[in-house]
Design brief:
Structural class: mainly beta
Number of strands: 5
Strand order of the largest sheet: 1-2-3-5-4
Helix content: 10-25%
Distance between the termini: 66 Å
Number of helices: 1
Largest sheet: 5 strands, mixed, barrel
Strand content: 35-45%
Order of helices and strands: HEEEEE
Length: about 120
């Protein structure tokens, strides 16, 4: 009986299913708001979905926000929940992937500052 109650609780607490396609994207974290479970990203173009822009997204699993901070280059996935696009997964990109720069005006593409 306890197992059934726990299973029902897990189903009730599970987020709604993603509707439609899931998109992969890259970008730079501008801010993280753990209290409201959101992240603001200056993201690259998402082929077949939207041009490059700055946007705030709700994060499906807020604990993932502990992995990133402002200034991080990230890889993330987006999916639709009703009218809202939500971040399904988010992770910092390993250093070797940070050398690719397809959009020179992107803040992440700025040359490193000279040491003092």
């Amino acid at each position: 009986m306890i197992a059934c109650a726990l299973a029902l609780f897990a189903l009730a607490a599970a987020p709604a299913e993603v509707e439609g396609p899931v998109f992969e994207a890259t970008g730079k974290v501008l801010s993280v708001d753990e209290k409201n479970a959101t992240v603001t990203v200056d993201h690259d173009a998402i082929p077949g979905f939207m041009p490059a822009m700055r946007m705030r997204f709700t994060v499906d699993h807020p604990e993932q926000l502990k992995r990133v901070k402002a200034g991080d280059l990230i890889r993330f996935t987006l999916g639709a929940r009703g009218e809202e696009m939500v971040v399904l997964t988010i992770r910092p990109m390993p250093a070797p992937q940070r050398v690719s720069c397809r959009r020179p005006e992107h803040p992440a593409c700025a040359p490193p500052a000279a040491p003092p």
